[in-house]
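**User:**
Make up any protein.

**Assistant:**
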Amino acid sequence: MTVTSKDGHFYYKASPKDEVEPGTTCGLYLITDPERLIEIELIHVDVSCENGGLISVVDGWELNGEFFPSPEDHHLPLEQRVKSECGSHQVMSRYLSSQNAALVQYRVPRLGQGFSLRVNYVKNPQPCNILVEGTSYVYTLSNHGRRLNCSVTTLFPASISLVSLDVGFTEQRRFSRGPSSRHHLITHRSPPGEIVHNCEEKDMSDFLQIGGSSGLDTANMLVSDSVCGAAREPKTTEETIACGITTVRLVSSGRHRNWAQVSIRPAEDEDLSLANVMCPA
């Protein structure tokens, strides 16, 4: 497993000097700035199709069978996010990721075989899903008025603060049937300058989740809070997520133009002792 933010040409040829046996599945994990996409151009492939040999380009990352972005947070089905090649030929196939993370997985069964590719990073005018390797920063999530889920995912336990947000209704109404068979109006209101907590439990359609998990799939996320409303510099405490993966996830129905700014930093020992969420070891 190799993680890099470098661009340019990459070459691999299976050699007796390799630390892994021929036929072992390996990965080149690519990550760049949040505002960039990753362009991968396969130039030449010499990988026998026999014995499971192949090279695959993945739109996102895969770790232990789980994907970033999660299947429900990506606009493409999973089978369209993985493109594979094998054989011996000039390829000149170009792939463009949907976010700042991509993966090249390869399994080369014979010594002397390999591949070459070129990596380039291009501007992304509308970032949605962002993978963070290990830096403190203020990140902006936006659905750009569309029905989609966007997330910031870190590969470390993190402490998270809300900087500002405008997510969903500041007032949402729904009807419920009372004992007298009449419909009663229930209103959830967000006071000016404040936010509503536990919005997912209150059946809000749009909200910002904060939580963590042991793997990349947000379907397995332990949620500390889900917030909605509109506020600048909201009066909220910092949330610490003691999990290998920390995620801030913006869930959007498409009925609102949602956005949120969050400050994320690696959690320190004193933060972890007071964590809001702790994943099982």
Observations:
- The radius of gyration is 22 Å.
- Helices lie at 78-81, 269-272.
- The domain at 130-278 is CATH 2.60.120.290 (Jelly Rolls).
